[in-house]
Specification:
The structure holds two protein chains of two kinds. In chain A, 9% of the residues lie in helices and 53% in strands. Chain A is mainly β. The chains are: A mainly beta, B mainly alpha.
């Protein structure tokens, strides 16, 4: 089959730029993602530290083996990866080698598999931190990224600037602090929770363990507690200029310990006991809403 | 002469002059020849490095502040300090202290705790006819000082880094988050301040204002660490 010169010209004018671009882009695509996998054998309960100055997702899951496996991928050679082991301490660091690089080039993602009982210290800028089925103390810090925890247990410290926390079936103690991030605590088995966000919302949907102490504060956001009919806790809810939305009047009795509470002079408050008032639940919002309701 | 002997000679005596026995062994041994070549390259590269690298001024300031805080350094700041420190008031040195992130957070935390402690220790004014501890319309002095200091730090943040061609159209989400949250925090601080100016003894307003100041100190420190700024 032969083509006329005009058609050939038109085909050439369309095809050559595409081919040219492809030739240019294909090596970039291969060079764009670099992957590293490292295995670290551990003896006891390891401490895993990840510092990701670049942007990216960090995922930590557990297994039965006494080994930490780190899978790392980086967006470009403008991110440097360092991993080192000192006995049971494993440190993983992603550094920015070229600060003028774009966000896409500064991406570094980590996927870790750790023994079930592992202590974690993770610090990242953006991108999700996801931890599942890890038993051990953990400190998780993020500027813009969210933190999702599932079935973790220990002393859990989460600090974010704008990232939100979703904690599903978490146990132990939780300490959350954020400026605009939200916190959702779902089906927890927490003995203690201390949460504060300046403009974000807090949702606690689950049981209060007897003798547990729970403090939830939001400057401007909504603090919502959904408790179960079998719960037993003393409630202290206060707001300065916000509102208290009590949708559990049928369950909230005057303080069962005979102590008469009143709101501070400058605040609106709601006090009472659910059940025999074994746990202590303290809710506050400066100018937001506090909502209390019983789960269906 | 063995390879280990060569290593020992290099370790103890360096390169020049290499004894004849060593040179003879190196000439015949590929491994030692490679080792000597590597060392030579390292030495040559080291010679090309500048003799001294001048650390940034804020390193000295932070170091001095930390040493002073630990009671190791008691001398007054010298006149030729990289950033002049006026000797007048201890509070002005606090601004310099804020330049390091850890120190900034620690310093502001101490300040906020101290301010909060002093304020909370005051007995509540239940009788409306009693004179108020703080005059309405004025922020309590501890908070006013913190507020002014943090504002000064905010003004002193370095200018935004010039966008490189690669990053044009891709403004960092982290920087955006920091900027937006600082704006949010400032608005909330304003709200708490207003409330506290109306009712200086409002404990919740104090509590939230103290927490907001602490978070502002942390976010400013984070911005300093990133070396970027807000507009």
């Amino acid at each position: 089959m032969s083509l006329s010169p005009a058609v050939r010209r038109r085909v050439s004018s369309a095809v050559f730029p595409i081919l040219g671009a492809s030739l240019f882009l294909v090596p970039l695509a291969f060079a764009a993602t670099q992957k590293v996998e490292k295995h670290f054998t551990v003896k006891g309960r390891p401490v895993v530290m990840i510092q990701n100055v670049a942007n990216g997702r960090i995922e930590v899951k557990s297994w039965k083996n006494s080994e930490v496996v780190v899978n790392a991928s980086q967006g470009s050679s403008k991110v440097g990866l360092e991993m080192e082991q000192a006995d049971d301490r494993i440190e993983v660091t992603a550094n920015v080698l070229d600060p003028s690089a774009s966000d896409a080039e500064l991406a570094a993602n980590f996927q870790l598999t750790v023994p079930e009982e592992t202590e974690l210290q993770i610090k990242t800028q953006s991108g999700l931190i996801y931890v599942e089925q890890v038993l051990g103390d953990m400190k998780l810090e993020s500027v813009a990224g969210d933190v999702h925890l599932k079935e973790v247990s220990g002393y859990i410290i989460v600090r974010t600037t704008g990232g939100s926390l979703v904690c599903t079936q978490c146990a132990g103690k939780l300490d959350f602090s954020s400026i605009s991030g939200n916190a959702q605590i779902l089906q927890p088995a927490l003995r203690s929770a201390n949460m504060i966000t300046m403009t974000g919302n807090i949702l606690f949907d689950g049981d209060f363990i007897r003798t547990g102490i729970y403090t939830m504060k939001s400057g401007r956001g909504l603090v919502e507690v959904r408790f179960s009919g079998t719960d037993s806790f003393d409630l202290f809810a206060q707001t300065t200029t916000g509102t208290v939305d009590n949708r559990a009047e049928a369950f909230l009795k005057p303080d069962s310990h005979g102590v008469k509470h009143t709101a501070a002079r400058y605040a609106k408050g709601l006090f009472g006991s659910v059940g025999t008032g074994l746990a202590r639940v303290e809710l506050s919002s400066f100018s937001g809403t506090i909502r209390i309701l019983k789960r269906d | 002469m063995q390879c280990s002997d060569v290593e020992q000679v290099l370790e103890q005596g360096g390169f020049s002059p290499l004894p004849d026995a060593v040179r003879g062994h190196v000439a015949d041994c590929a491994a030692c020849s490679s080792l000597v070549a590597d060392f030579s390259r390292i030495v040559d590269a080291a010679h090309e490095l500048p003799a001294e690298v001048e650390p940034p001024a804020r390193v000295w300031i932070s170091l001095r502040a930390q040493l002073a805080a630990e009671g190791i350094l008691r001398e007054t700041p010298v006149a030729q300090s990289a950033v002049p420190l006026p000797p007048s008031h201890w509070w002005q040195g606090f601004a310099q202290l804020l330049r390091g992130r850890a120190l900034a957070t620690a310093a502001i935390a101490v300040l906020v705790i101290a301010a909060g402690y002093i304020e909370f220790r005051r007995p509540p004014v239940n009788d409306s006819s009693a004179p108020r501890a703080v005059t309405a319309g004025v922020l309590p002095p501890q908070f006013a000082q913190t507020d002014a200091d943090l504002d000064r730090e905010e003004q002193n943040l370095p200018p935004l880094r010039a966008a490189s061609p690669a990053s044009v159209g891709s403004v960092s989400s982290v920087d955006d988050t920091l900027r937006q949250n600082l704006t949010t925090l400032n608005a909330f601080i304003k709200e708490c301040r207003k409330r506290l100016e109306e009712d200086p003894n409002d404990p919740m307003a104090r509590e939230y204002l103290a927490a907001a100041y602490q978070q502002k100190a942390e976010i400013l420190a984070a911005m300093m660490e990133r070396g970027r700024s807000v507009n």
